[in-house]
Amino acid sequence: MKYAYYPGCSLECNAAAYDMSVRAVADLLGIRLVELDDWNCCGATEYFSQDELVACAVIARNLAIVDPQLDQLVAPCAACYLNLKKTDKLMAENPEMNAKINECLAAGGLRYRAGRVRVRHLLDVIYTDLGETALRDKVVRPLTGLRVAPYYGCQVVRPLDGFDDTEYPMKMDELFTWLGAEVVDYPVKAHCCGGHQTQISEPQAFELIRRLLDSAVEYHADLILCVCPMCQLNLDAYQGRVNSFFGTDFKMPIVYFTQLLGVAFGIDMRKLGFGKELVRAEPVIRAKLSGALATGTK
Hints:
298 residues, Glutathione S-transferase Yfyf (Class Pi), Chain A, domain 2, four-stranded parallel beta sheet
């Protein structure tokens, strides 16, 4: 299976563990990811509030440079996935905007035909294109005994023609059930983490983060699984600030879903980027899976 790959800016810096685990897991599963040559930032969320045309043109450039031999583009970041998918949809449904965006692209010698590239999140690719049997066959360290709270966030499931339920997604839940984990009924799984709200209103941002952490604790989760760098950053990096603000004592590890996939598949934890998170996940995972982790690594 071969796909174009758009890592996005976060995976080159604060979310390096996500990129490491994505590549390690993809390689083991036989998923060939061909990184776009000279890709650019998707603009995150702020650019759209400044100038929609420029924002769309910047995003569309990434669609335009996908290898003509490939028709699917994988984006692990929820924001990148949403922006790429949203721009492709806008160009397909709005002829005037389509023409303007292609006029912008033409300045760089590019053109994009709406709908040529199917934008997908990696979770969808792994769940749908491989499926239960293929994933179970790769398990060497069953996740039995580990209680996980799958956190999808507010962006990855919001596109109108997305791959999961917009209010109560279940694909990640099912995937980790296949691997032996005990998936908790996490009721806030599609709630917002606040995004960049920490830069605007800390009290509001901290409350949103507190709710997510508190729910995971209430349901006795050992860790939270993320599919978005922004979500992982907020829940991990701001736990100390949230504890100071509310007088709480959260110590909840926040890891990427691909990192835990890699653990189940027997990939060495260093190759999966463990240790880059602030609230350390490895001691918790090793304590819960001590028997399974005693087996060999890949």
